[in-house]
Amino acid sequence: MYRPRQHEIGDQGLRIFAAALPRAWVYREQPGSDYGIDAEIEVFANHAKASAVISEETARLVRFNAHEDPHECVARVVAETARKLRRVTRRGPRDLRAFSILVTHASRFLDASYIDFGLFLTGRAGPPGRPRGLTSDTIRRRRLTDARLLREYRHCADALVALERAGGQRMVPMAAARVIQSFTPVWLRMMFEGQRGTAAAYRSELRELAEAAATIGGRLGDTDSVALVVSLTVCLGDPEDPRDRAEALEWAERALAGCGLSEADQGAVIAHIRSVEEAKDEQLQRKQPDEDDFIAEAQIYREMAVAHGIDVDGGTDDAAELVRIGLADLNPERALRHCVHAMVGEGPSNPIADALQMPTAAVKSVFCGLHRHAVGGVPLDDIAREFQRAYCDGCPDRSPHPPAWKWSRAWHREREEELRSQS
């Protein structure tokens, strides 16, 4: 019975991939009849678990059960796999060696791009409408990260050229997709910082790369890779600018028309891209600004901490402990529910709180707006217990909040105004 050469190559690739994985990872092959899904892996590291489905030549993360920053976990998984792949292909075919080198540089670029975005968020942290700015340490880290980004981006470009010269044309579309995906956080940061000219120049360069990769993929009949590289490039657009998004879709149609795919395949890819854009529209319409979105705020602080080299979940040093306290104390509602007169105030800062612009990681106080009693410290739960024991238990003016009460920054500002007017 004849078996297509493509399927034989796919099986060889899966064996190489399985050999490249760390021994602690769980690798499961799918039944031979399931040509859509080739394998599944489970990753366990630092209290985190991630599952990935391996579909043909792509590795797509499908879900997370993690107690840490998922971006950090993704970057670590990609980097570890790239290192192992390069090791086992060292004496393999020339094109596969070239591909493993490119994947290694792309994984380093992805890691640096997440760090770059976390450092950018550091400068935007602070009360709504009043970002605190960058510290000298953050500025230094950003300069180092910028240099690393530029270096790895050039390495990726050189590796792409080497891959094509090595006869690895069939791998170029997937390689280009990795580079474009890794650049996306950097491009977003440029847009947020107002560097639209620089962002536009990089997008033009990445579009040329995507068009070349799509042409190669179309010539080889690799519809999935063409769809992936074009879809990722369309993501390099301003989600809040309808004209920019319409122009990106027009570019996608031109790129697909020139890559040699059938009209039916082109229509399917465009339909997929349009469905993604419609989902973005629905999300933007539903999402309203919320200064008290503590889950999103905690995620931002985690990314900032990772960018500063802090292991939030597994670290045992003072920096990690302070960040964990700061995350737990973002919402002080639990410490104030016992009395309407209780409030939380900021106290002296520390280097970690300053670097992350995270006041809840510094000294804070629970105080009584009526009797002017106060207790200070760092962990809010310890402060609240001591404050209630010393001043609230037995106080005739103690008045608990209603069950439906929720703490908010707006409530806090109103109480501050009331206290100022009474003083």
What does it look like?
The chain has 423 residues and is of the alpha+beta class. It has 2 domains: 68-282; 332-422, no CATH class. 61% of the residues lie in helices and 10% in strands. The protein has 15 helices and 7 strands. The protein has helices spanning 5-20, 70-88, 94-124, 136-165, 172-192, 196-220, 223-234, 242-257, 263-286, 294-307, 318-328, 333-336, 351-356, 380-392, 409-422, and strands at 26-29, 39-45, 48-55, 58-65, 342-346, 364-368, 374-377. The strands form 2 sheets. A 4-stranded antiparallel β-sheet has the order 1-2-3-4, with helices on one face. Helix 5 runs antiparallel to helix 6 and helix 6 runs antiparallel to helix 7. The radius of gyration is 26 Å and the shape is elongated. The model is unreliable at 32-36, 44-73 and 126-131 (pLDDT under 50).
End-to-end separation in angstroms reads 91 Å
Could you state the order of secondary-structure elements as H and E? HEEEEHHHHHHHHHHHEHEEHH
**Overall pLDDT confidence:** 76
Which segments are poorly predicted (pLDDT under 50) over 5 or more consecutive residues?
Answer: 32-36, 44-73, 126-131
Shape: elongated
| Structural class by sheet pairing and helices | alpha+beta
Number of strands: 7
Task: Indicate the percent of residues in helices.
Answer: 55-70%
The number of domains: 2
Strand order of the largest sheet: 1-2-3-4
What profile does the largest beta sheet have? 4 strands, antiparallel
- Provide a count of the helices: 15
Layout of helices and strands, plus pairs?
Layout: H1 5-20, E1 26-29, E2 39-45, E3 48-55, E4 58-65, H2 70-88, H3 94-124, H4 136-165, H5 172-192, H6 196-220, H7 223-234, H8 242-257, H9 263-286, H10 294-307, H11 318-328, H12 333-336, E5 342-346, H13 351-356, E6 364-368, E7 374-377, H14 380-392, H15 409-422
Antiparallel strand pairs: 1-2, 2-3, 3-4, 5-6, 6-7
Helix pairs in contact: 1-2, 2-3, 3-4, 3-5, 3-10, 4-5, 5-6, 5-7, 6-7, 7-8, 8-9
